[in-house]
Queue: 2 jobs
Job 1
Amino acid sequence: MEKLIQTLERINWDFSDYSSVKFPLDINSIPWYPATFPSLIPKFLIALLSGKGSVVLDPFGGKGTVAVEALKQGRKFVYNDLNPFAADIARNIMGTLLGSFEDGEQITKIIRSDREMLEKDKLRQCEDDEYVGKDETVINQLYEQDFWNRLDRNGINRDVVYWYHKDTLREMLAIYDAITGGEKDFSYHVRKFAFAAILKGVSSQRGHFTYVTDNCLPETIRYYNASAAYCSMLERVDGAVKEFRKQFSAVNFGGNLHHLIGESVIHCGDARGLDWLGDESVDLVITSPPYLCAQDYVKTMRLINLFFPEENLQDIISKEIGARFMRRKKSETVVQNFYDDLDRVIGELWRVLKEDGYFCLIIGQGKGKITDGYDTVQAVVDIAVEKHGFDKVFQTVRRISYKMVRIGGVDNEEIFVFHKRKREGKG
Ligand SMILES: C[S@@+](CC[C@H](N)C(=O)[O-])C[C@H]1O[C@@H](n2cnc3c(N)ncnc32)[C@H](O)[C@@H]1O
């Protein structure tokens, strides 16, 4: 244990030179998702705290950072998140990886055919016979009707017109047709993965993503080239998958990705009730819960919900732990609810973790009035140690870069490693 702690202490956990811009080929840097941690954090923790073939759980899985790092190092993962859009990202990543391991050229083929399809779609729009020889008003009317029909037929929310220029939208609809036109196979996952990743970039909302969260519509609608953004995103996905394959093969020497993913789990549900997971069934937990009142995760995914709507969102939102929309309520109640929620989660983690296993917690104090006078991080640590019996074996502060401070609303976060000691008298 002493040696392990010394190694943990030698690592600089800031990873301040890590960003999705600098590491575009890290597959986890591709999805658009708030408050995620750099993949280097789970990478080191998995390497140091678990062995090959073990099971790594993240009950607040987000875009699947822990799951991907677990696979890279030959571990199985158990992914959980309440947010259906987050679980969908994780499924798309896994579907993309699986397909490309079968045939390394598959994404290249999709890029080629989608590029051709988008080119043709542009021509078809210009040459459509129906519009030839008609005056401008009629053309506009036809276009409008055709356009609305297309949205309605696909169940796409008409509000898309407030976020995207009409010509951007026409390109997006062609991509949407390619995604939904076939089976839910490899190409579905690749295309949806790339499509979801460009949604904010091609929208007319140029502000911070919390503008999307809070439904602040763009003041001016401008055209952005969705076809080009999508094709270059596909190229990036292709590069990232190739990079993943290289890393996977280097570590796993002929290991079987199918087998590992087949024995792993993607679950969409509430971390306060992990009853679908058996007692002492996981070897390591690595997780970062929501920081109090820092984000509204489901609402942040507003744009993808316009195209691929999920049901019961109000119910799901009401189960979000520490949601930002609670920040105007009474501090005392909000803070106490947060502690009660994390108490339930940590209780579940104790139950599902094997003895001698580790639980790594990455957590920060949400900024803002609501947390004034409270040390929410220390309170959660006390719950883990005093109430549930974990031993705290490591703790460090991680400074977050300036850019991240603006994004997450926190200055720094802490990493804790807890140990579930073997019961007395056991082997
Ligand atoms: C800080 S983020 C985790 C990000 C993740 N570490 C990553 O790198 O992608 C916290 C996650 O907790 C999820 N969450 C919020 N309330 C939850 C609940 N009751 N049960 C499960 N997940 C929840 C959010 O949807 C969000 O994805």
Note: Residues 204 and 397 are 37 Å apart (CA to CA).
Job 2
Amino acid sequence: MIRFLSDDGTPTGDLPLSETELLRGYRAMVRGRLVDDRMVVLQRQGRMSVYPSFRGQEAAQVGSALALEAGDWMIPSYRESCAAIEHGLPLHQLILYWRAHPAGWHFPQGLRLLPFSIPIATHLPQAVGVSVAGRYHREPWVAMTFVGDGGTSEGDFHEALNFAAVMNAPLVFVVQNNGWAISVPTHKQMKNTKIADRARGYGIPGVVVDGNDLVAVWYAAREAVRRARAGKGPALLEAVTYRMSPHTTSDDPKRYRGEDEVERWAAKDPIMRLRTALEGRGVWDDAQEAELRRSVKAEIEEAVREANASPEPAPHEIVEQVFAEMTQDQKWAWEALRDH
Ligand SMILES: Cc1ncc(C[n+]2csc(CCOP(=O)(O)OP(=O)(O)O)c2C)c(N)n1
């Protein structure tokens, strides 16, 4: 397993990132955590629909997203709100998306980010398509897609790996192995002990990385992105991490996992680990932390205000934008809704 920070954050040797990069990664993780906290509160206040928190997975997502360059594509699942905002999704748009507001369905033009995929793994074969499309556009973009440990047991995952391999697709698969697929632990989903081994069956390199170590994730993801851009094909990164939160705001994890497990992982919190490393170098202190948190919170409140300013959706929008023309069933549904 690739790692550069020990569990408590002490570096195990020289770090392959510059100080500027380390600080950038740290700021992005803190921003992600504060956004996530706020989203959960908004949901509890009834101002948000169901929301899948990424708490504990900030390093896996920020480290991967930072490996992409301008022009590259990201194809996320529902878990990747943190990666998406790092790739450029405006915060108010994220809020509107999870509020199920139609204005949140359209990601900004020019942002190379596909909408979050709620069905597990169906976006992976599409990600192969997105990645090879660059050849037809004569643009050397690389694509990165994400899936959970549970998602790697879906047929679409295996088809996508095979398809990517034979197409020599410039695609990086990031598997966030957070230990659980809702209430199903990884060992009940597969006989493999390493998800990365699944890649080998398709002739693709698979690497295991400490997913709570920002340095390790960014380093390994950058290698995979460079490799893909150089025409050497796809790769799979298994980021071993942990979902600190419930599966979504509708879940109660106390029914299937113990507090001791959560506490063990809390001691390996990705933000705490990098902060320890930065403080050890003398480049981070309490005053910088306070200022970062103050400015991110102000940014979030501005985004909440902007999202709140979006007009109430009209009832007919529930049946619009599904097909070019309404189907008979939709017409009946719409008429019933309107008459009601
Ligand atoms: C095709 C499909 N089957 C089932 C579901 C219901 N479902 C939602 S999340 C989930 C578990 C996914 O776990 P994992 O892939 O490990 O990702 P995580 O949620 O842990 O990030 C399931 C079964 C779904 N959304 N799509």
Note: The chain has two domains: 19-309, 315-340.
